[in-house]
């Protein structure tokens, strides 16, 4: 109740100023509708150790619709957006529907208020209060999980300040994360997949632009105030920095680069005493229509962590995890022995295909191993083709093939093949 009061108090100045301006609202009011739809087919073929070996192939046909609008006048705006997902073919384990014989496709049926926010925005300052979408940097630590049908949003107060040239200060205090598991979260024995996760979370992100790239310092304090031990283990304090930029050599040749380091340790209600490192480095080379990418990422492990057997590793519970460590989603929770992900990829872009375009085809290879104990978990192959059909429609086909090496090294470590076909509409 105190947290709800805090948000109401934080929004009071906005609502008060809006009331003062109420007589003039009939003039210069702008309404922007929100209409988005996505039809997706996803299939999962998963083998491996029992009970996974007895699983049936999953086949999911789901439709997602978002609808709402934003009313704005001057620097003030109010946005409301509803989101619903329908399972047309539910031969899959959504994570909360109890169909445990199928592999998971994390798109449960749901209806919810996805975003409800009041916003004050000027050139130097943006303040957002309410249920909102938050994507920081490349979403490695905080993101909206846009790949899933049900988006992750936050009940939060966010302040973005850009009043000093080349500098941006981005501060958020969140009292809850609205998860991808929807209104049935926590049902059928899935207590660690709740509808929302309450807590006292602070996301601090300060960036400075230079000629060579953007230098960012960050601090993410995650305090998951939940009874479930598996969720409290995600409570952590993470401090780090990243540098990302690009240098053009010619009109058709460009080098891009990224480097980041962070240190994480237990925080608040976490019963595990641990500390672990995060390191990533990536290079990209654009040559005309081709883009080559190579990099490595480490989510380290603390073998001496107290309170849990087998060690404990760096976790990123609020990240857009599907973007990282392979599309088969084998590493959404970092194994206790950590992850080293070495990857290389190539992409090719065709600007026009008749009246459609662009068309982008990509292929990426991952090699996964542990931080400790020299375990080669497996290899993964990812391929994707996207096509912009017109102003409102786009299409996608996508494939992931994870091949386990040796014995299963963590929960869910099994040969897995996934295929997606998808149509998106946005007004």
TrEMBL record:
Where is the organism placed in the taxonomic lineage, from the top?
Bacteria, Pseudomonadati, Pseudomonadota, Alphaproteobacteria, Sphingomonadales
Write down what this protein is called: Alginate export domain-containing protein
Q: Does the keyword Signal apply?
A: yes
Q: Where is the signal peptide?
A: 1-26
Q: Tell me the Gene3D superfamilies matching this sequence.
A: Porin (2.40.160.10)
Q: Name one Pfam family in it.
A: Alginate_exp
Source species, domain of life: Bacteria
Check the record and name the InterPro entries matching this protein: Alginate_export_dom, Porin_dom_sf
Domain Alginate export intervals: 37-162
Tell me which UniProt keywords the record has, alphabetically: Signal
């Amino acid at each position: 109740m105190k947290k709800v009061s805090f948000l109401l108090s934080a929004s009071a100045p906005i609502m008060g100023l809006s009331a003062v301006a109420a007589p003039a609202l009939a003039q210069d009011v702008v309404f922007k509708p929100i209409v988005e739809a996505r039809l997706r087919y996803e299939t999962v073929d998963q083998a491996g150790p029992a009970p996974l070996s007895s699983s049936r192939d999953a086949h999911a046909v789901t439709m997602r619709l978002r609808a709402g609008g934003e009313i704005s006048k001057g620097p003030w705006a109010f946005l409301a957006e509803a989101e619903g997902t329908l399972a047309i073919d539910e031969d899959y384990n959504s994570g909360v529907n109890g169909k445990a014989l199928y592999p998971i496709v994390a798109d449960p049926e749901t209806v919810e208020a996805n975003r409800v926010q009041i916003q004050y925005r000027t050139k130097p300052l943006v303040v957002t209060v309410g249920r909102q979408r938050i994507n920081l940097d490349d979403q490695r630590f905080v993101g909206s999980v846009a790949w899933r049908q049900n988006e992750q949003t936050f009940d939060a107060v966010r302040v973005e300040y850009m009043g000093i040239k080349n500098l941006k200060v981005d501060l958020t205090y969140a009292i809850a994360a609205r998860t991808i598991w929807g209104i049935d979260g926590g049902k059928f024995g899935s207590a660690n997949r709740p509808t929302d996760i309450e807590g006292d979370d602070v996301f601090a992100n300060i960036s400075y632009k230079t000629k060579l790239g953007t230098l960012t310092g960050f601090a993410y304090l995650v305090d998951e105030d939940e009874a479930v031990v598996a969720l409290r283990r995600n409570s952590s304090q993470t401090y780090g920095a990243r540098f990302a930029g690009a240098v053009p050599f010619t009109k058709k040749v460009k080098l891009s680069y990224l480097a980041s380091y962070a240190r994480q340790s237990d925080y608040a209600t976490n019963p595990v005493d641990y500390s672990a490192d995060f390191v990533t480095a990536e290079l990209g080379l654009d040559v005309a229509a081709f883009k080559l990418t190579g990099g490595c990422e480490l989510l380290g492990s603390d073998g001496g962590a107290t309170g849990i057997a087998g060690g404990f590793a760096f976790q990123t519970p609020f990240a857009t995890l599907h973007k990282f460590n392979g599309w088969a989603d084998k590493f959404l929770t970092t194994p206790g022995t950590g992850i080293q992900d070495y990857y290389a990829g190539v992409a090719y872009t065709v600007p026009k295909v008749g009246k459609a375009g662009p068309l982008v085809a990509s292929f990426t290879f991952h090699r996964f191993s542990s931080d400790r104990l020299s375990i080669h978990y497996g290899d993964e192959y990812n391929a994707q083709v996207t096509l912009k059909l017109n102003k409102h429609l786009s299409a996608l086909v996508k494939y992931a093939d994870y091949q386990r090496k040796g014995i299963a090294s963590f929960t869910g470590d099994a040969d897995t093949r996934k295929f997606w076909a998808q149509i998106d509409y946005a007004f």
